[in-house]
Amino acid sequence: MISLPFPPASLSGHNTGHWGGKSPVIAKHREWACTAAQAENIGIPQTGDILLAVRFMPPDNRGDRLNFPNRMKPYFDGIAEGLGVNDKRFVPYYIYDEPAKPGEVQVTVLPVAVLPRALRSFEGLAA
Q: What is the pTM of this model?
């Protein structure tokens, strides 16, 4: 499992600030994700889709959880770089937990073939 800081609102696609101000923030989050993915040493098949089970634990209730996935692009790019794959193979699945300080995102990387089993492993989703 890859654990990362909760992505700030500045990573939202609707944040229309100048790209020069946003670029260092994007680069920092992408690098964190790349380093974390490499540290996990995850075995990835050469072909096929890759499931990303993404668990959001926001720091508070202020965010709009429909926008949380939109903030994940730098993380997805970094994970793809760390795993040596194209991010078009990613099939994200989102889980929204209650807020918990300081906020965190947990990403579990799995082959899509295990999706039914993965869904049963999350609390409250047992078949």
A: 0.83
